[in-house]
Sequence to fold (614 residues):
Amino acid sequence: MSPAVARAPIDSRKSGTLDLADNYERKLVTFRDSCIAQATDNLRANPEYARIGEYIDLIEGRHWNTPDLARTPSYRSRFVDNRIASSRMDKLSELTDIKPIIQVETDVEAWEDQAKMNNRVIEYEWGHLGLDKKLTDVVDHGLFTTGFWKIDSGTPGWMGVDACGLDNLLPVEPDIPLQQNPAVVFRTYYTLPHLMNKWPHKARAIEREAAASQGTTMDFTSRPWQSPQSQWGSMTQRTRQRAGAGMPQKTRAYPLVQVTNLWVDDFSINETDKVMLVKDPMVDQERHNYWYHVAPGQRIYPRKRLIVFAGNTPLWDGPNPYWHGLYPFVQLILRPNVWRPGGISMYRDLVPLNRAVNKIGAGTMENIEQCLNRTLTVRGGAVNDGDWQRFFPDMPGAKLKMTGQANANDIKWNDPPVLPQYVFSFLGQYLLQSMDRHAGTVDVASLGRKNQVPGGDTIEQMRDSLQTPLRLEMRQIEAFLREAGTQAISHIFQNYTLKRRMTLFGPDGITSEDFLYDPGVMTPYHDPKESHHKHFTLRIAPGSMHGASKDRNKQLAIVLFKIGATSRQDLLRHLEWGTPAAQIEQELQEQFTPDAVGKGRTPRLVPSERVGTY
Fold:
C-alpha cells in the first residue's frame, strides 16, 4: 500500500497549540521519497531519458566514448565532424530568433484598461527578465525530450522564470498532462546563507542538513569524471550514490543543500466543526502573500498544497501561494507522441548519421596517414638486423645497407588501400544531405553559386518548404507561451501593486478599478479575485514566430493601412517599431490632422500649411 501524505497541521490560536499528525515529519519524507521513486520509474518509460547523456557527449564532441568505440587502438584515427552541435545551434536560432506578437484580450469590455495593463507588464518583463534567452534555454531542453519553465512571482510586483529539464522536474505521472498530475517534484540546490536568510526559524535544522550533505555527490546534476555521461544518465539514484561514494570529499566555501518542492493535489477536507485558516501554521501570517478560510467539510487545499524540504527537513507546508491554483510550471514538448510519455528527441535521427560521417572521415584520415607514412617490407636476410633497427624510411636522405645476397626486389614500398568512389558518393549524396534535411539546414553555399542569388525572405521560404516540421514545433512553442501567459496574468493581478505599476509606467500604470472599493487593487469587488484572471487570455498571433509568415503579415498590414482598413496603431505593432507605439501615435497626431490619422492616409494640407517645394 502506497504511503499517504501526512495530514496538514492545524493551528489552534485560541488554545495556543499546534495539532500535528503522528510522526508528521517522517510521513512527509516517506511520501516525498515515494513520489520521487514513482516518478523516476515512470520516467524510464521514455527511452529518450536514458539517452540524454549520450546526446550530451556527442554535442560536446565526445563521439568515440561508447564502449565499442572506446576500445579502438590509439593509433586509429578519431576524426570528429561535430555536425550535431551545429544542428543544435541552427535549430535554436530558427525557433527563438523572432519575438512573437503578444496581445492580452478580455471578454469584458469594461476591463479593457486591465488588459492593456497586463500587456504593459508582460512587455516589460519580457525585456527585464530576458525571456528571449529563457525561451532559448527551454527549447534547448525540449530538443532532448521535454523542457519546462518554472514561473514564480511575489509582491510588490516581480516575476521569475527559470528553464529546467527532467533532471530537476519530475511529474509523478508523466503520461498525463502536467496540470492534471497528482503531484509534481521539483529539485534544486541552494547555498546555506540563502536558505538561512529565507527560513530563519529553521536555521539550525538547515545547518545540520548542510553539514550532512557536505562533500557528497549531487546525484542528479554532477557525475564522477571517470564515469561516462552515457552510463551516468541511465543510473538509478542509489547506483549514482554508490558510484560517487569513493570520490574525495571537498569542503565548500558555500555549502549547498538540496531543496525539494513537492506540489500535491491534496483532496483532504476540513474534518473539524470550525472554520479553518489555511496557511503554513509554522510561519507568521505576515510572511504569507495568500491565505484563506475553509468551512467544515470543504477541501483544505482546493488550489493544491506545497511542501518544501531542505534535505529531509520540512521548511514549509501550506497552500499553493498563487491564485491560479496551477502547478507553477509550463511544459514544452517540441515533438510529441501519443504512445509513451515525453517527446522524441531531435538528436535521435542525427546520431547514427553523424557516427557514419565520423567513421568515413576517420577511415579517410587513416588512408591519408598510410599515404604519408607508407609501409616498407623487406625479405628476411636482405638487411642486417642492426642496420634495419637504425633505419628510418621517412627520414630525408636515409641510407640502408643490404647484404650481398640481396637484390632491389627484396625491399619495396606497399601501396596504401584505395577507397572506392562509392564511399564518397554515399557521404556527399546521402549522409550529409540527410543530416541537413533532418536538422532543417539550408545549403546557403550552393545557393550562392546560382546565377541569381535569392533574397533572405526567399531563403526563409525555401527552408520552410523543405522542413514542414518546423511549423509544428513553432505551434508547440506558441501553445507553451499561451499557457505561461495564463499564469503571468494571474500573477499580475495578485502581486503587482499600484505603487509598483506607477513606478514602471507612471500614470499609465493606473486602472479604473484602483479607485473603487479596495483602492490600489485591480480585481473588482464583485468578482472572486482567485478566478478574475480567467476573463483574460494571452493571444499570440498565429505564425508570428515564423520568419517568412511574419514578413508576409507586415506586408499585409501595410496594404491594409493604405486602404484605411486598419489603424496606425495596429500597423506600428505589426512592424514592431522600436519606439513605443503610443508615443509615435501622439507624435503623428501633432504633425497631421486628426481626420487623416484616423483614416490611415496621407493628409491633404491647406496651402498655408505646406512647407518646401512641391
Observations:
- Residues 217-238, 242-249, 593-602 have pLDDT under 50 and may be disordered.
- The chain has 21 helices and 16 strands.
- The CA atoms of residues 458 and 548 lie 8 Å apart.
